[in-house]
Specification:
Length: 130
């Protein structure tokens, strides 16, 4: 149970940090209209708006679709990282309940953990925290 608790807590923290980082990158990119995405290019031919960027030889990547591609990749990644953080948090709650420390520990005691399977648990214990 301690391994489940520590791994789920670590994963919850990392997923939350990833979600915050992606949200920050997404917000800064939308606010700056993608200017940070083409900052590494040293061409004066590039416009300030990354949505209107053109492909030049001075840039190490194709700038024509950098803004739309970044947003198309970051939005699903943000949603998946947030879902992972939520599920890891729920795993952490389950581990706490197994240890008798969680919010449902009174209705689900430590003595019920060993011999019972999930199907044999009372309905109140199955639906306690989720």
């Amino acid at each position: 149970h301690w391994t489940l608790l520590s791994v789920s807590l670590l994963n919850c923290l990392l997923s939350t940090a990833c979600s915050v980082g992606l949200a920050l990158a997404l917000g800064l990119t939308v606010h700056g209209r993608g200017t940070h995405l083409v900052r590494g290019c040293n061409s004066s031919a590039l416009p300030l708006d990354a949505r209107a960027a053109i492909a030049t030889n001075d840039c190490p990547f194709n700038t024509t679709r950098i803004y739309d591609t970044a947003l198309a990749l970051w939005v699903p990644s943000l949603l998946l990282a947030a879902a992972e953080a939520v599920l890891s948090g729920r795993c952490c709650l389950v581990a706490l309940v197994f240890r008798g420390l969680g919010p449902c520990a009174r209705s689900y005691g430590k003595e019920q953990v060993g011999p019972l399977s999930w199907a044999e648990l009372p309905v109140s214990a199955q639906h306690c925290c989720w």
